[in-house]
């Protein structure tokens, strides 16, 4: 048996290597929990508005009811969009084949979603709003209300991510053969 004189990766590179190999399944589960919890917050907010008839300022999702600042904080929304983008980027190397394509699609959509939140944050910090609107406004928000837009964005990012995870964890898929993790059970 040949031995390698090359030291195992350390630091950030070693952490990313471990995340996309032996800890990939755990990383995906934690990330999926965070994503679904956030998406559920947007869904609950829409239910509060459209099914329960709550006025918009009172429809704040689950966590926004006891902590109203969560809904109005552009920093919190931007931070989540950034966290989501970083998570998608960091977990990307663990995906191969069709699952990799779906994961990259989710990442691309999240990059746009992140840019929209960056625009909102910059407006809030500057106190100057797009097209002299009364509040920070994103580009697509010019044609779609904010509550619906962010539920749509989070759904749009989540769907290809879930498809990628589904494909990635199926046994017997030839495009999973080169994956370095153990997310898919072996035949």
UniProtKB/TrEMBL annotation:
Top-level taxon in the UniProt lineage: Bacteria
Swiss-Prot/TrEMBL keywords: Membrane, Transmembrane, Transmembrane helix
Transmembrane segments: 30-55, 75-91, 151-168
UniProt key word Transmembrane: yes
Annotated protein name in UniProt: Cytochrome b561 bacterial/Ni-hydrogenase domain-containing protein
């Amino acid at each position: 048996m040949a031995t390698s004189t090359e030291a195992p990766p350390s630091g950030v590179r070693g952490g990313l290597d471990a995340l996309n190999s032996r800890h990939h399944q755990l990383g995906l589960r934690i990330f999926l929990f965070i994503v679904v919890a956030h998406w559920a917050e947007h869904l609950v907010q829409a239910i509060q508005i459209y099914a329960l008839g709550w006025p918009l300022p009172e429809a704040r999702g689950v966590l926004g009811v006891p902590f109203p600042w969560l809904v109005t904080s552009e920093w919190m929304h931007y931070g989540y969009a950034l966290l989501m983008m970083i998570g998608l980027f960091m977990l990307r190397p663990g995906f191969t084949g069709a699952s990799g394509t779906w994961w990259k699609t989710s990442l691309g959509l999240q990059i746009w979603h992140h840019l929209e939140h960056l625009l909102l944050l910059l407006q809030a910090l500057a106190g100057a709003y797009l097209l002299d609107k009364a509040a920070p406004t994103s580009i697509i928000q010019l044609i779609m209300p904010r509550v619906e837009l962010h539920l749509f964005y989070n759904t749009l990012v989540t769907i290809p991510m879930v498809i990628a995870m589904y494909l990635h964890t199926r046994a017997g898929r030839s495009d999973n053969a080169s994956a370095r993790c153990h997310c898919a059970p072996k035949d």
